[in-house]
Amino acid sequence: MSTTDETDTSPAPVTGRLEAELERLLAVESFDPPAGFTRRHPVENDVAAAAADPVTFWADKARELLNWDRPFTTVLNDANPPFYKWFEDGELNLSANCLDRHVAAGRGDRVAFHWAGEEGERRVITYAGLLDETQRLANGLRSLGVGKGDVVGIFLPMIPQVAAAMLACARIGAVHNVVFGGFAPSAVRERMEVSDAKVLITVDGARRKGRTAPVKAAVDAEMGDLKSLERILVVEAVGAAGLGGERAPMTPGRDVWYEELVAAADPVCPPEPMPAEAPLFILYSSGSTAKPKGILHTTAGYLLGVTYTYRTVFDIDPATDIYWCSADVGWITGHSYIIYGPLSNGATSVMYEGAPDYPDFDAWWKLIDEYKVTVFYTAPTAIRSCMKWGAEYPDRHDLSSLRLLGSVGEPINPKAWLWYQQVIGGGRCPVVDTWWQTETGAIMISPVPGVTSTKPGSATKPLPGFSPALLTEQGQPLSEGVGVLVVTQPWPSMLRTLYKDDDRFVETYFSRFGPTTYLVGDAARLDADGYFWIIGRIDDVINVSGHRLSTAEVESAIVAHEAVAESAVVAQADEQTGQAIVAFVTLTGGRVGDDAMVAELRDHVAARIGKLARPKRIIWADDLPKTRSGKIMRRLLRDVAEGRALGDVTTLRDPAVMAALASKVAEAD
Ligand code: WT7
């Protein structure tokens, strides 16, 4: 299946002139909105209305932007914080808002997705076509016993069926649980097990850079004895030819071919009116323990958040824009800004099943040229890869259709921001650095293109209706300086809880500063102009290429190897991926680590979590630095990994451990 884009090592012939221009621009602190950019959706009224009364602002937007089967009469129920409810007595169907309303308005022929496969395959999916497939699949799922509130797992690559799968669940009130295609089947199993998924929708095989992974066979090996999982629905994406001669293995009575189910199903499935607070999806994300958090989003508030922010941040005109978000649908970016935000607004998107560097380093730019993409949304790590490959690849193509560029997932370093703005955007496109999280559901801090002046590296200011703020460690409001990022008011697209774990929800997000202040988990800086600069996580979460991983999750995978006695995982700053995983490992019985063991442990982690979690560096340690109470001091390990002078080691049980480690690392370097 698709994996995170791995670093490539080909040389980068960056021209001297570009380099000099970027150096010059690095001194520019702030960029005014480009003169040629004309905004289509004005925001002045929103800014004023949201500032005056955010709850009324959201109520007005909910009426303006969404179609309701039953209008709501209450807006926010905040009687029991942090368990907020929005538009509680209203009812709507999310798939009807994403599909039926556009078709009913005569726009059924509009393209929802231009799908591109990596070997040059092309498909066009219209709104009418997607509605038809969604209805059939919804009926098909019902025939497999899926009803309201049942959980459906989705483990698919970037193929059009993934959109139909999510929308079909929403149509009948089932709850989807999408797992990123780059995760290992054992991680999929864990997520199916903890969410009690009844059905899993997967694929026979997934292609990546000319190779095919036999996904169904791998899924079978993990899922066989999972009691709750009654049925597996299989999309035949690569077929017998793709799998080297034989179709994917199917277990009679349990497994069903997607194509057969859809072809046989009744084509009419009226959308189920769903209560505003009905669960829509669970998306597992990493926290500070090894157990992933099942972040739960509900129907109307989530849809409102993504519908509003999509049009505000990307300034989309559905009739003329061609939008492309290069994320994977298995992350929140894909949920909110590949599927729900664009479809709810009736926009046309590109969906690409492939890598940026296959068959060549210009794969993305070729697509932008071919489809005349106007709005492009990607991640800093990808931009840095493209920088390294060199401007000659984008230069091969006409990128003049682009009018707006977006970034998401991690802080973007000013140099990458400028390269993006200059080389990809030709200096004429606003760059929107969008800050948000799986938990926030929708973008929360971002420039409003055409309005906000941008400072490279800053996500700038809160969007209307959202109230991020900085607090000191003690909880005092900060108007300037470095502090802890929080959100002080509830917002419609906020997570509602952690699936079946209200206690962990309260403990993780609402215990440090009380039940009405949401703790983000990031540190940030506010400058004198009120601009937010995100610094990074304050918990044990690592951000590798914009993907969230917990140190504990990687540690528990490593220590599961029979040769490992103990392990501590930390993040190290990395030019390419933002952060990289460094694992300190103590082997059992005084075994000595060698290159073969490094490779073995990396493979072991890939098999248990996924390739994205493989440590970049493994450091053999005879012992790990622990406090007297036995807690591993990761801060010190980070110092060692990043080659800093050792800080205070007096609280350690055995201070000599650090000196030994440091000299060992220095030797190896
Ligand atoms: C964490 C959330 C939001 C979709 C992708 C990641 C970091 C996200 C930015 C940004 C600086 C960012 C934060 C945040 N992050 N966007 N524009 N600038 N940092 O979603 O997996 O839930 O991760 O990603 O640390 O807390 P996620």
From TrEMBL:
Record-annotated AMP-dependent synthetase/ligase domain positions: 102-491
Domain Acetyl-coenzyme A synthetase N-terminal, first and last residues per copy: 46-98
Lineage per the UniProt record: Bacteria, Bacillati, Actinomycetota, Actinomycetes, Frankiales
GO cellular component, as recorded: cytosol
Molecular function GO terms recorded: acetate-CoA ligase activity; AMP binding; ATP binding
EC number(s) reported in the record: 6.2.1.1
This protein's record includes keyword Acetylation: yes
UniProt-listed GO biological process terms: acetyl-CoA biosynthetic process from acetate
Family matches, as NCBIfam families: Ac_CoA_lig_AcsA, PRK00174.1
Family from the record: Belongs to the ATP-dependent AMP-binding enzyme family.
Name listed for the protein in its UniProt record: Acetate--CoA ligase
Cross-referenced InterPro entries: Ac_CoA_lig, ACAS_N, AMP-bd_C, AMP-bd_C_sf, AMP-dep_synth/lig_dom, ANL_N_sf
Top-tier EC class: ligase
Keywords: Acetylation, ATP-binding, Ligase, Nucleotide-binding
Domain of life: Bacteria
Nucleotide-binding is among the record's keywords: yes
Family matches, as SUPFAM superfamilies: Acetyl-CoA synthetase-like
Location of the AMP-binding enzyme C-terminal domain: 553-631
Organism: Pseudofrankia asymbiotica
